[in-house]
Amino acid sequence: MPASFLQGAEPLQLQTRRELFIDDFLIEKLIGTAEQRLHQPTSEEIVLKHDAPWEGSGSGYHSIFKDGDIYRMYYKAWHLDVSEQGLKTDQHPLYCCYAESDDGIHWKKPNLGICEFNGSTDNNIILYPGQFPGLNADPGHPAIFKDENPNCPPESKYKAIIRSAKPHGLLAFHSADGIHFKPMQSEPIITQGAFDSQNLAFWDPVAEVYRAYWRIFTAGKTDQENWKPAGHRAIRTATSKDFLHWEPFVDLTYVDSPSEQLYTNQIKPYERAPHLLIGFPTRYVERGWSPAMESLPELTHRRWRSKVSDRYGMAITEGLVMASRDGTHFKRWNEAFLPPGREREGTWHYGQQYIGWHLVETKAPQEGMLPELSLYATESYWTNPGSELRRYSIRPDGFVSISANRVGGELLTPSLTFTGNELTLNVATSAAGSVQVELQDTNGNPLPGYSLEENDVLFGNSLDKSVSWNGNSDLTALVEQPVRIRFVLNDADLYSLQFREKQAD
Asked: Does 505 fall in a domain?
């Protein structure tokens, strides 16, 4: 049990923050059938096909975010194939392309007039090789974001980091409109890494620093003079005050996860609780040839790819989820968050389920329902004229819940304080299920007026159910007083809680 949870430890200070159960922060004890339960997103529609002549079967590394009334998407455009001579990637250069949406579901590729392809600039390419003389910028490994730093100048409101081979490292770019980018300087801002992945950066509004996350290998050499990677693909991070000068790097560590091949990291502050950094790394697994492998979709093409390299045919990828409160130490769920899914064409292969960077909020499919979160992941890598991007939906805060069946279970939190005056829960029960809440002193004794017997039983499915005792939800009398919370669940899932400021009627 973490030291912060032991008797006598300083109370956790929640203030008015929303807290999720994606890690162990709010868990001191689970009783009965109560457990942390990992949830998986729901598969929705294909939202984008990378089938333009300048795109292709290797397109990926998507950056997605909501910007005012529109959604923006940036991605690598690449075509790869195999032949008797080996891997073929010379159909066209690597590009970075742009797409846009009004709802996060229906996307369009605008003609931007920036890059000439086959004699025409009617395409959605925004970055291309040779665009910046003197820079060896690789537009095929892009990560683009809107800078939320309140002191960011208008000409730098959108930023990107892009890989450079020589000199080895990551280059910084900026833009006023999110379409036309320029280098911020000619030298790489980060040089200690492998960088053969989607490397990314963003402004952390809680720590008030820029954070970068990039690919490394746990062994071997991957500098400008030597490319001899060994060990596992892993993740490195650093912080910066100005985006150009970075503090010494730190390699990520994990609570209870083994070393695995992590191909991307997709880390960003979670918008509903920005003190939490949530990532969606891609796990790469080589299963070897077996009857089970040979029963997977598109065996002929799988064998054809394996002629170039066994791993092209027998590797499988899937999405994971992880979270951190300090940016370096993560709780990574070892079970798949986004597995390959039901077998069909375009699935169960190397390149599927690379989750885009990052979540966005979209409207629910039915009138009257609260919004949902959408994430996007690749499929049909290798096999089609162009890879595809599928949307997945998940409940806000719905990555992990405290869940109990009809036998029932309980959660006891560590000692904590809060500054809001109303407790709300993101919770879902069955028709017969329920959630009850008791507030206790630090010794585990029920507080008068807030006992389980006085609690108004909750049931339903809502993002913000208000908790009350004998009809009273006002917690003003307990503000900044150390308490423990006891949850009693029956056929229910508790996703998050928040002590919010309730406005007077």
From this structure: no
